[in-house]
Amino acid sequence: MEDRMTPKERVGRFLAGQSIDRVVAAPLILNHVTRVSGVKVSEHNRDGEVMGKAHLAAYRRYHQDMITIFTDTAVLAEAMGTTLFYPEDDAAQVDKPVVQSPEDVEEVRMPDVRTEGRLAAHLQAIRECLSAVGEEVFVACCYAAPFTTAACLRGTDMLARDIRRNPTLAHELLRKSLAVALDFTDAVIEAGGVPVVVDPVATGSILSPTQFEEFAAPYIAPLMGRIKEKGLPAMLHICGKTHMLLEQMADTGADVLSLDVVDLAEARARVGSRVTLMGNVRPAQTLLNGTPAEVEAEARECLEKALGSPKGFILSSGCEVPLHTPSANIDALMAAARKFGRLS
């Protein structure tokens, strides 16, 4: 079936509460763009021009409803002093956190997010995409929330220990991370992008609801507020199992919750009247390792559970589309939106 709106028209009308032709479909196509453009991940994640062209190639291939620029969750932490390891053809990984001991907190840098390294590359990629297709599609930029950045500054295991034994240090790292994230939020918006805040380390598999309430939510909420002040939808993604955190995630002020390992029917019943739900075809089990028919069936199940939720629904992957996902499976997700998500 043919679309009757451009992605920008569809998303704009959806956010305004107006009628649209079909459900918005925005799988999180992130580093997979390198498989479409034919470049190594290590080329893509440090060069803004290469990054932008890769996302353009993927958009022209899949025609998803939003471009989502992203490399890894350590981009802010790297600019603040953490050292990364760069595999040739996979996402960068934390090699040496900058805060090895509590005294090292003084070594944490407050970078110029508009000019430094990979932060500047992300902003360049936003501009590259907007210059080419900005009239027809919104361009988002995904980056880490303070808890995830703090985990990259300290090491996840050490931060988990700090929140029990040295909460003062944890909060100091979180405050520094928030300041840089707020600055980068402004820079993304100035470049014309839509901020998407991701907090994979703040998942329910790591934080209890009480810990989330103290160490994650208070640092997510200011980001949601800043984005909404600029007239944009505040989008929050947390990986993994978050059913125990749904109300708290909604309490951050997010307009859209991108959900991973959560039953969408349960999410609709608990927070669907407060936030737009987004998700959640399984990335590894179905998109990477399934067949197109299995992707279609799971996408249809997502639509049956969540389409018609009071604040709306966006069909997506539960988390990042895996790097080596067959293109036919992404095609199947988009086709399911057109086949089963017709709204007018």
Considering the chains and any ligands shown, give keywords for the structure.
15 helices, alpha/beta, eight-stranded parallel β-sheet, TIM Barrel, globular, 344 residues, single chain, 49% helix, two-stranded antiparallel ribbon
Describe the protein in words.
This protein is an alpha/beta fold. The chain has one domain: TIM Barrel (Alpha-Beta Barrel). The chain is 49% helix and 12% strand. The protein has 15 helices and 10 strands. It starts with 6 loop residues before the first helix and ends with a helix.
Give a summary of the structure in a few sentences.
The protein is an alpha/beta fold and 344 residues long.
Rg measurement, Å: 19 Å
Mean pLDDT: 97
Q: How many distinct domains?
A: 1
The proportion of residues forming helix, as a percent range, comes to 40-55%
Major sheet: arrangement of strands: 1-10-9-8-7-6-5-2
Helix- and strand-based class?
Answer: alpha/beta
Q: Could you give the distance between the termini? A: 13 Å
CATH class: Alpha Beta
Q: Encode the helix/strand succession as letters.
A: HEHHHEHEEHEHHHEHEHEHEHHEH
Helical segment count = 15
Major sheet characteristics: 8 strands, parallel
Q: Which percent range describes the beta-strand content? A: 5-15%
What is the approximate shape? globular
CATH level-two architecture: Alpha-Beta Barrel
Q: Ranges with pLDDT <50 over ≥5 residues?
A: none
How many β-strand runs?
10
Here the CATH topology equals: TIM Barrel
